[in-house]
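Data availability (excerpt). The following record was deposited with the supplementary files.
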Amino acid sequence: MIGWKRDWRATTGRLKRFYEEFTAGVTKGELRRLFDRDAAQAYRVLTREQDLSKEPSGRLKRLLFRAKVVFLGLSYKLTPARRVLFAVSIIAALFGLIRFNAVIETRDIQVNFSPLWFLVSVAGLTFLLALELVDRVLVRDELEVARQLQRDLLPSQAPDLPGYRIAHSYRTANEIGGDYYDFLPLPDGRLVLVIGDASGHGMAAGLLMAIANAALKLAIEVEPAPERVAGLLNRVLFRTGDRRAFMSMFYGLLTPATGHLEYVCAGHPFPLLRRASGEVEELGRGGLPLGIRETVELTRAEVSLGPGDLLLLYSDGLPESVNAAGVAFGFESLRQLLRVEAEPRAIHDRFLRALDTHLAGEPLTDDVSLVVVSRL
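Predicted structure:
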């Protein structure tokens, strides 16, 4: 009796540990998104190649129509062999709903084959799921390599610039992001401050960002003047991809000793400059992103960073981050958070905390880059 209780406790403990490991990281918010946002996204992806204009108006007919288009959309996204396996598994499940009895006449025995059909269906679908998961894992491994290469293009730490403090971070909405920023010291002591956002998301945006990074560094070696760098980068992007491949950019050339900053802004959200007096200014003028036209007209501007001034560079993923209620973080929130004086790292962390509070667990829909530069 004592041994039986001991074995029961051990079994219960193992089941509890397995349950905790199996459900680790699961939250109510994730379960809720699984059946609303994720399900809606899956429906859009599976049916985007189907003709939905013929959807009937009746509730039952509409349900059957949607089931059909989802089945076809799911089937035709599989390879031909897996498509056949999927169809066979579904047919086996339908056979499992019908009661098939075999009667052995010599003996009064009845055999129900319905569970066998269900078993065939479950085995086929499980095997198909395993094949698809293996493909997904292999793709994720390749994306992780690409993501690591992308991390190598971004600065791992801020430059040691006497009289200045810099804080920065980068968050991606997907495995591969399209945001870019860098700090590039020049031989004459000046510092390039650049931040950009490639169009689109995922791998395409990451490739465009990598091309822009190579072209930008080459352009800086030739002539670091803002308008020259932007013009060369625009020509490279225009000749590289189609018209949907473009990039917004803010490029600044800082002289640390005087605080003089000359810059151009090509379709990028205007950086904010908070003066020591508390006044907040926008740096930039309206203009097209780079890569849309063969030539781009950009106006070079100048400003001076005085002692106590603070410069905020960011990508549009920050103010345009939307929570579950559909409310964006907003540009006014940036101004309000920037008005409170603090060290660059403290201001940087304050922005990220405010963003996390605003999202309340909702995932990012766009990459978020944040750079804070302060002159002591």
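Summary of structural features: The longest strand covers residues 247-255.
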